[in-house]
Structures are given as C-alpha cells and as structure tokens.
Amino acid sequence: MTARIAPIAPGSSSDATINGLIDFAQNGFGDTEMFRLMARRPELLKRAAAMFAYFLAGQGGLIEPPLLELMRLRGANLNACTYCATVRLQPVVEQVKPREASLGLRDISGMNKAQAVAALRGTLDTSAFTPREAAALKLVDRIIVDPHLVDDSLYAELCRHFSDDEIIELVCASSLFTWAGTLNTVAHLGTGAESIYGEQGVYATAN
Predict the structure, then answer these.
(1) Distance (Å, whole) CA 22 – CA 17
(2) At what angle do helices 164-187 and 42-56 cross, to 10 degrees?
C-alpha cells in the first residue's frame, strides 16, 4: 500500500530528537510509519509523541496502559482505520491479545466508518471485562459514534469506577487515538518495510 503522503525515510531527520521518537515508535508499536509521517512536521511529532508517551508508555497518565490499548483497538475498528487496527502496543501485547476476541474485532478492511460501526454493533462482550474496563469500552463505543450518546446512565456507570480526573483522561486518550486514526485514514497510511506486521488491509474508497 502506498500512502498518499510519503513519510520521511528512517533516520533521515537532522533532528536527533525526531530520530529518537521514531525509534520509540518501533519499540512501542512495532512500526514507525505514523511517526515518520508526522515527522514531516517535527514540532507536531514532538508534541503528539509526548501525548502518546503520557498515555501509553506510563509517563504520567492515570489510566493503566492495558486498558487504554483495549480502548484503542476497539476504537480503531469502529473508526475503520486499518493502520491502527493492525499495530499493537508492544509492552502490553501479551496481556491484551487473549482478550481481543471479546472486543468483537472484525476485519474492517475496505469498510468505511459507517460500515465498521454497523459490523461491530453488539459484538462487545462486556462480561469478559471487569466492570471498570466495561464502562471504559462502552464510553469508546458512544463517543466515537456521537459524544452526545454518553447519557446520564453511562456517565453514572463511569463515575462508579473512575474519578473525575480519570474520566477526563479516558475521553482525551480516546480522542487522541481517533485523531491519529483520522490522519492515517486520510493519508492511506500502511505499515512500513521495517514493520513486525504482515500486509495490512486496505482503506475504503468512495463508490
């Protein structure tokens, strides 16, 4: 798959910090294409990478990375981002992998977002997760379709398991993942030659 916007070549930045962040992506996600795409705008990458590190690398966030990875994967499939649905957060992959089936993930290759949302409707097995995890995953399902769907009942459920500060982080983390997925989808980003993954699916095209 050829991206619409070419990422920079590995190790080609004159900024050592940028090259270090690309190495961080390889260790964290097993692929560097998204970070190398953002590296076309170095200051953007530095700021975005700090957010990913905050949430997913345990650099200050309140929410445990395995739960955020469950949320990221569910959201990636709902958003029909084939890149996000392919890569995995390597430090927690062994913890999360046995639970992926309960996320109701589907092959969203070639689907648009509406088709992916329809395909995943009713597939989340909340009984396989703790009440805390289930509440966070329900939040992802609602805010990706329409944040107005986060009704008082779901919000009360969230409040039983998360503090106000943690709810802020849940929403911000899920929004960060969707933001990245939007960039990847518009750019038709695929995994790179150095990736640990096989060939990924394709993006939907307009009829």
Answers:
(1) 9
(2) 140
Q: Over the stretch 56-105, which tens digit does the pLDDT of each residue have?
A: 998 999 999 999 999 999 999 999 999 999 999 999 999 999 999 999 99
Cite the DSSP H helix spans in 9-151. 16-29, 33-38, 42-56, 65-78, 82-86, 93-96, 113-120, 131-145
Distance CA 197, CA 127 (A): 30
- pLDDT score for 128: 97
Long-range contacts for 123-126 (Cβ within 8 Å, ≥24 apart)? 124/74, 125/101
- Four-point Cα dihedral 141, 204, 28, 20, nearest 10: -130
Q: Is the dihedral of CA 186, 88, 97, 65 positive or negative?
A: negative
Query: Dihedral sign, CA of 97, 125, 58, 200?
Result: positive
Kindly list the domain boundaries of the chain, sorted by start residue. 63-187
Residue 116 burial (C-beta neighbours within 10 Å; 0-12, 13-18, 19+): buried
Architecture of domain 63-187: Up-down Bundle (1.20)
Cα(83)–Cα(154) distance, rounded to whole angstroms? Answer: 29
Specify the long-range contacts of residues 104-111, CB closer than 8 Å, at least 24 apart: 104/74, 105/73, 105/74, 105/77, 106/77, 107/201, 108/77, 108/80, 108/82, 108/201, 109/82, 109/200, 109/201, 109/202, 110/201, 110/202, 110/203, 110/204, 110/205, 111/80, 111/204
